[in-house]
Each structure stands twice: as C-alpha cells, then as structure tokens.
Specification:
With 266 residues, the protein is α+β, with helices and mostly antiparallel strands. It is built from 4 helices and 11 strands. The chain has 2 domains: 116 residues, Heat Shock Protein 90 (2-Layer Sandwich), CATH 3.30.565; 108 residues. The protein is 25% helix and 26% strand.
Length: 266
C-alpha cells in the first residue's frame, strides 16, 4: 500500500537551569515536561537525487509506525540513487545530458480517533521519463492493535461489505466526474466496454481514506484514483467523497464503531 517513505524522529526535551540547594531565595527546580513528538521535514539535495519527506507529529508519536515508514523510505531512496547513478553513467557514455531525479512524499492526518489514525500520503517522482508521476495512498493505523490495518478489516463482511456499501455510489460519482472533465464530445461510459477508462476501477486499485475533524469520529470516506487508474494521465486524479451512513456504522466491527459517526443530512 505504501510507497517509499523516509523518517526521522525529533523529540523536544526540556532543559532547566540547576539551582543550588542552599539558595534560600529561589524555588527548587521542577521536573521537565515529557518530550513531545514533533513534525518532521527532511530535504536532501544532490547531483543524483532531490529528496523530500514530511511527516506529522501524530506519526512521530508512534515509534513502531515511524520505524516501519523509515525503513521503507531508506530502501526506496537507495533504489533511486542506484538508478540515477546508472542513468548518469549511461548518458555520459553516450553524450546525453543527465537531469537529477526527484522524489517527495508528504503525509497528512485525515482522521484521528482514540483507536484509529487515518493518513493520506501524497508522493511525486521524476526519474527522467516522458513525464513525472504522482499518486495518493491511504494508511490506517490501529493504535490498540499496534499495527497497520486495511480499510476492509474494519467490516464484519470484509471486501464484500465494502462493495455493497460503497461501490454504487463510487461508480456513479466517478462517471459524473469523468463527464465533467471530458465534456460532451466524449462518449458516455459503456458497462463492459473494452476501454479500461470507461470502467469502474476495483477498490484494490484505489485509495480509500476515512476522514473527519481531529479528535472526533470520522464521517466520510474519500475514494481516490491515481492517473491511469480511472482515466488517462491528462485527466489527472479522481476523487469521490462519500458520507458515512447508518448502514456503514452497522456493518463495522463493534470495536471500530466509536471511531465513526453517520453524517447528518444538511
């Protein structure tokens, strides 16, 4: 689910001055406040690769998650540097100009409840091809279980429940968004047609991102399709935001129901 991501944990620690115990005119020192997790921003620029990574404090506060993300980031960065070095050597041998690679990824909190942390990852990569690539991924962390979980894991019926609850609304919302981008000159989507960009992508190819106000139950789910998933690169991304309904709440496993609430009609 995840693309490569780097991480460094930064902690701010209190630093108090020492007070001699025999100084009657001054109060005794108090213990420093516990260190607080901080946002992370990493920017490394070089001849081979410009690398950027940003992470919110909410992830820094979860060492197990932070360590996993850092490991994936380190591995992907190594792959990019190796590829860039080989590309540069090949171009020098054949008298072609070389342009350094670029990679960036940013995480943002979309939902934060006592049980679940919902993150959206946006990444960009340019390795000298016909055009850069970008994408969006979802990450859902179960604080109680201490692990990443799939969105389908929240439901008693698994993938079948997800399809029953969201598929019709997702597909109709996608068709509407396609029509707005393509205009009247483009033919309407035909179910079963051979053109993959007229079809409704499966959830396995999408990012499903539950969200809500910080500290409150999540009340919507954004379904995101990257370029080439629901349309050609020129059409960019597709996003369809769907409300959490009473039916969604009922289909959730009991342990996760308190992390969601149904949207009230406007």
């Amino acid at each position: 689910m995840l693309k490569a991501i780097p991480l460094v944990l930064l902690l701010v620690s209190g630093c108090g001055s020492r007070i001699a115990p025999d100084d009657p005119g001054r109060a005794a020192p108090q213990a420093a406040a516990p260190a607080a997790a901080q946002p992370v921003a990493i920017d490394e620029k070089g001849d081979l690769l410009d690398f950027h990574f940003a992470l919110p404090a909410e992830v820094s506060a979860i060492p197990r998650l932070a360590t996993a993300l850092r490991a994936k980031a380190t591995a992907h960065k190594a792959e990019l540097l190796k590829g860039a070095a080989e590309d540069k050597a090949y171009r020098a041998k054949n008298d072609f100009p070389f342009r350094g690679y670029e990679y960036s990824t940013d995480f943002a909190v979309q939902g934060d409840t006592p049980r679940l942390l919902s993150l959206e990852q946006k990444w960009f990569e340019d390795t000298g091809g016909a055009h850069p690539m970008h994408g969006t991924a979802a990450l859902l962390w179960d604080r109680s279980a201490g692990r990443e979980i799939a969105f389908t894991d929240l439901f008693t019926g698994g993938p079948a429940a997800l399809a029953r609850l969201f598929e019709d609304s997702w597909c109709s919302g996608l068709d509407k968004a396609r029509a707005e981008k393509r205009g009247p000159s483009q033919p309407e989507a035909i179910p079963g047609a051979g053109d993959p960009f007229s079809q409704c992508p499966k959830f396995a190819d999408l990012a499903l991102i539950p969200s809500g106000k910080p500290g409150q139950p999540m009340n919507r789910v954004t379904i995101h399709a990257d370029p080439y998933v629901a349309g050609p690169y020129s059409e960019g991304d597709y996003d369809v935001a769907l409300p959490v309904t009473e039916a969604v709440i009922a289909a959730l496993k009991p342990a996760y129901r308190s992390s969601f609430e149904a949207q009230r009609p406007q």
